[in-house]
């Protein structure tokens, strides 16, 4: 029987390192961020719903959603963020179900979702793995990766549940403040217990 693993953590804690490593091991990965990007593309129902609510101001010159513009709006106003989640969530959830159903022959399927807890995807999984790193490392990674100021990075971090709460709810915690090699050793140890 397929076991569905929820892989989560905070923004910029290093989930993608683990997700990419599992993909190399031929474990199906359902990436909630990728799905979000897909359902927000022009021509998709998610796109229409978002533009209908937020207006043309969020579109770029090609007519696609400008993710940076939209992010500036929703991360500076918690009401707008909640509204965006409410609008897009049914589209994301439907796509996740569809992708899970394509991998029911696999022993493990991983749903990689930074907001697994926040958006209620916890009910879709059998176990939760949380990727943790210390707050200073997280902040620096996010600022560098997304070219954000310290206040913009902090605003994004604060819109997610605190990492400690996620760790308290996890079946497994992977510490990712050190080297990639140290992190992947933890992944291998975890996999050895998960796969017969």
TrEMBL record:
<dbReference type="InterPro" id="IPR001977">
    <property type="entry name" value="Depp_CoAkinase"/>
</dbReference>
<keyword id="KW-0173">Coenzyme A biosynthesis</keyword>
<keyword id="KW-0067">ATP-binding</keyword>
<comment type="function">
    <text>Catalyzes the phosphorylation of the 3'-hydroxyl group of dephosphocoenzyme A to form coenzyme A.</text>
</comment>
<dbReference type="GO" id="GO:0004140">
    <property type="term" value="F:dephospho-CoA kinase activity"/>
</dbReference>
<keyword id="KW-0418">Kinase</keyword>
<keyword id="KW-0547">Nucleotide-binding</keyword>
<dbReference type="GO" id="GO:0015937">
    <property type="term" value="P:coenzyme A biosynthetic process"/>
</dbReference>
<comment type="pathway">
    <text>Cofactor biosynthesis; coenzyme A biosynthesis; CoA from (R)-pantothenate: step 5/5.</text>
</comment>
<dbReference type="GO" id="GO:0005737">
    <property type="term" value="C:cytoplasm"/>
</dbReference>
<keyword id="KW-0963">Cytoplasm</keyword>
<feature type="binding site">
    <location>
        <begin position="12"/>
        <end position="17"/>
    </location>
    <ligand>
        <name>ATP</name>
    </ligand>
</feature>
<comment type="similarity">
    <text>Belongs to the CoaE family.</text>
</comment>
<dbReference type="GO" id="GO:0005524">
    <property type="term" value="F:ATP binding"/>
</dbReference>
<dbReference type="Pfam" id="PF01121">
    <property type="entry name" value="CoaE"/>
</dbReference>
<dbReference type="InterPro" id="IPR027417">
    <property type="entry name" value="P-loop_NTPase"/>
</dbReference>
<keyword id="KW-0808">Transferase</keyword>
<protein>
    <recommendedName>
        <fullName>Dephospho-CoA kinase</fullName>
        <ecNumber>2.7.1.24</ecNumber>
    </recommendedName>
</protein>
